[in-house]
Amino acid sequence: MRSAFGYEVIRSRRRTVSAEVKPDGRVVIRAPLFMSSAEIERFVRQKQDWIERHVGLQKKRMAAWKDGSGNTAPPLTDDQLEVLKKAARDKLPKRTAELAKVMGISYGRVSVRAQKSRWGSCSSAGNINLNCLLMLAPDRVQDYVIIHELAHRRHMDHSPRFWALVASYCPDHTDCRRWLRDYGSGLISRLP
């Protein structure tokens, strides 16, 4: 029996099979080169409830980013994206410096980019990258992402010690993470 939804299969030199639901609701199955189509279909059937639940969640998240006329918010124009990047470059490095001072944490440089997969990152050299789309998020969510990346200067993992440090400077980090889960894919879908 075939699954009730379509999916794309990407084979590679991996050892395990996994399912991913993209922000637009597409289902991608990543499988080892040696795995047969029948085995992949069996895996999909086993994961069907999880996949259908996540496809529904992504559709809800996308629906949350409708404009007043019921249309999906349009992609940003190149001009709008440049304005957003400039605003982010003006604000986010300053806010990073303020929060780093409060946290007593040093870092390298702050870069601002338009990224489709990350809100922020921290390199082992201490350089922090932030997504310019954070300018479309509430201030508390911007602060959470910055605090998260600064916390990686002390703990380059997501251990309990890392989350305790994040929580000490951002007590509502769980709500901020939920906001990014619920609305972030809608923001990212606006990148040209």
How does this structure look, described?
This protein is of the alpha/beta class and 192 residues long. The protein folds into 2 domains: 8-63, no CATH class; 78-188, Metalloproteases ("zincins"), catalytic domain (Zincin-like). It has 6 helices and 6 strands, in the order E-E-E-H-H-H-E-E-E-H-H-H. The protein has helices at residues 37-46, 48-63, 78-103, 139-151, 160-169, 173-188; strands at residues 8-12, 18-21, 27-32, 110-113, 120-122, 128-131. A 3-stranded mixed β-sheet has the order 1-3-2. Strand 5 (120-122) and strand 6 form a beta hairpin. Helix 2 packs across helix 6 (173-188), helix 3 packs across helix 4 (139-151) and helix 4 (139-151) packs antiparallel against helix 5. The model is unreliable at 65-70 (pLDDT under 50).
Q: Topology, please?
A:
Layout: E1 8-12, E2 18-21, E3 27-32, H1 37-46, H2 48-63, H3 78-103, E4 110-113, E5 120-122, E6 128-131, H4 139-151, H5 160-169, H6 173-188
Parallel strand pairs: 1-3, 4-6
Antiparallel strand pairs: 2-3, 5-6
Helix pairs in contact: 2-6, 3-4, 4-5
